[in-house]
Design goal:
Layout: E1 2-7, H1 11-26, E2 30-31, E3 40-45, H2 50-64, E4 74-79, H3 80-84, H4 89-92, E5 98-100, H5 108-112, E6 121-122, E7 145-149, E8 151-152, H6 163-167, E9 171-172, H7 175-187, E10 192-196, H8 213-227, E11 244-247, H9 257-265, E12 272-274, H10 282-288, H11 294-307, E13 312-319, H12 326-339, E14 343-348, H13 366-389, E15 395-405, E16 408-412, E17 424-427, E18 440-448, E19 453-457
Parallel strand pairs: 1-2, 1-3, 3-4, 4-5, 5-6, 7-10, 10-11, 12-13, 13-14, 17-19
Antiparallel strand pairs: 8-9, 15-16, 15-18, 16-17, 18-19
The structure holds iron/sulfur cluster.
């Protein structure tokens, strides 16, 4: 029996999809890349914001077409969409044979093999499932990089965010389980381990005994040195590393000094800080349910840049949050101009009746929010272009990811995370051997665009 799975949404969803695929393969199914060849199709959905929910529905309807004249007999929808719209979903999408929520990923095999669930849905409380079952088989989407989920759920109370309702309160995985999985991934040839959670920097505080992200990352940073033949040193310099580690989705309230110092101390941890701040205006932050002020953020980013020379800073912002005045927006814009982030993502506020922020007064018209979005992105374009110019002439280690054309490959430097940041393009001379995908190349940067670099392999 053949199965096709489409994974939508974030990196954490991708881990869930890979684990579901691991279970399905273990049950004897063959995973296919073309939905036309599939007996069963699974869509692992996202519903974090309205656009994501719309995309999920669009993809479900598109894939449902394979059921009519085709081979496909069963369509299963998993994840955040059924979890969020649990009361209406089965009536709204009659094309779907089974829905399983975020608390039922461990029952995916039953769902694809034809079990019937009451009302077509299996939606247990998400907190009843462990963040990731120990030793769960996993079918990786790429052989050279893997996301490593360190916790599931979130115990923060941001008023614009549905995640705690969809994923439950934060549950960290025991450090020994994360380390064992990392070891297996490195032994299988993974060259970039990317730690993810909803609020990654608060990792471990819910465990008994409690653990910390800094201790965990330090243990992981020692792994490649023990388990891989290369030195694993100097991610940002000319030495080729064995593997590198990256941490995504930090939180300004939970990132601590020990973590910053650990990143500074280990050369195989990318000096990359992804800390979504969302806003800087005190009035807006308060309405968002975020307990910090602009001055705290200034201190935090100054500290990171002082303690980790060459640190790359990434953040995300929301514009058009209810009540955001011109003055609030100007404060945000000036913060972006002053901080000079290396990478910036901006989202338009996405409203929904099931969010606490929906009940706030003074919703911002869509065209005003769009204008603010454009202003921030144009400001960041100049910052990014200027920063990337400074790399010209420098030598960097780059993880090779895919061929683009003859003797041209796309990869990422340590300051470029997958999907969200730019790429580094590597040119190989006629006499140079082509690189293996997932190997590290040293390059000399020869040119820079706004969000991408180009260099020659050396
Ligand atoms: S910390 Fe992130 S995941 Fe948690 S509630 Fe806030 S925005 Fe949502």
């Amino acid at each position: 029996m053949n199965l096709f799975l489409l994974s939508l949404g974030c990196a954490r969803n991708q881990v869930d999809s890979e684990i579901m695929l691991g279970r399905i393969k273990t049950a004897g199914w063959t995973i296919v890349e073309d939905p036309e060849e599939a007996d069963t199709i699974v869509v692992n959905t996202c519903s974090f914001i309205e656009d994501a929910a719309d995309e999920s529905i669009e993809m479900i309807l598109e894939l449902a077409h394979y059921k009519q004249p085709g081979k496909c007999k069963r369509l299963v929808v998993a994840g955040c969409l059924p979890e969020r719209y649990r009361d209406q979903i089965a009536d709204q999408l009659p094309e779907v044979d089974a829905f399983i929520g975020t608390g039922a990923f461990d029952r995916i095999v039953e769902a694809v093999e034809g079990s019937t669930f009451s009302g077509g849905c299996l939606l247990p409380d998400p907190v009843t499932i462990s963040p990731q079952e120990k030793d769960a088989p996993r079918a990786l989407s790429a052989s050279h990089m893997a996301y490593l989920k360190v916790a599931e759920g979130c115990s923060q109370h941001c008023t614009y965010c549905i995640i705690p309702k969809l994923r439950g309160k934060k549950r960290s995985r025991p450090p020994q389980e994360v380390i064992a999985e990392a070891h297996d991934l490195l032994a299988a040839g993974v060259k970039e381990l990317i730690l993810v959670a909803q609020d990654t920097t608060s990792y471990g505080k819910d465990l008994q005994p409690s653990a910390s992200l800094s201790q965990l990352v330090e243990s992981l940073a020692r792994l490649p040195l023990q388990s891989l033949p290369s030195s694993g040193t100097a991610v940002n310099s000319t030495n080729i590393p064995g593997a590198w580690i990256r941490v995504l989705y930090g939180h300004p309230e939970s990132i601590d000094e020990a973590f910053i110092k650990t990143v500074a101390s280990y050369s195989n941890i990318c000096s990359y800080f992804d800390i979504p701040i969302q806003h800087v205006s005190s009035a807006i932050l308060k309405k968002m349910g975020r307990n910090y002020k602009r001055a705290d953020l200034e201190r935090l980013f100054d500290k990171i840049r002082r303690e980790v020379p060459g640190a790359s800073l990434r953040t995300t912002l929301i514009v058009g949050f209810p009540g955001e005045s011109e003055q609030d927006f100007n404060a945000l814009l000036s913060f972006v101009e002053n901080t000079q982030f290396d990478h910036l993502g901006v989202f338009l506020y996405s409203d929904s009746e099931d969010l606490r922020s929906h009940r706030l007064p003074d919703h911002v018209p869509a065209e005003v929010a769009q204008e603010r979005y454009d202003q921030l992105m144009s400001c960041q374009l100049d910052i990014s272009a200027r920063k990337y110019q400074q790399y010209i002439g420098q030598t960097l280690s780059v993880l090779v990811e895919e061929p683009v054309e003859k003797k041209l490959y796309a990869g990422r430097a340590p300051f470029q995370a997958p999907e969200v940041d730019g790429m580094t393009y590597i040119k190989f001379g006629p006499a140079q051997p082509d690189p293996a995908i997932g190997s590290f190349s040293q390059i000399k940067v020869s040119d820079a665009m706004e969000y991408d670099l180009i260099g020659d392999a050396i």
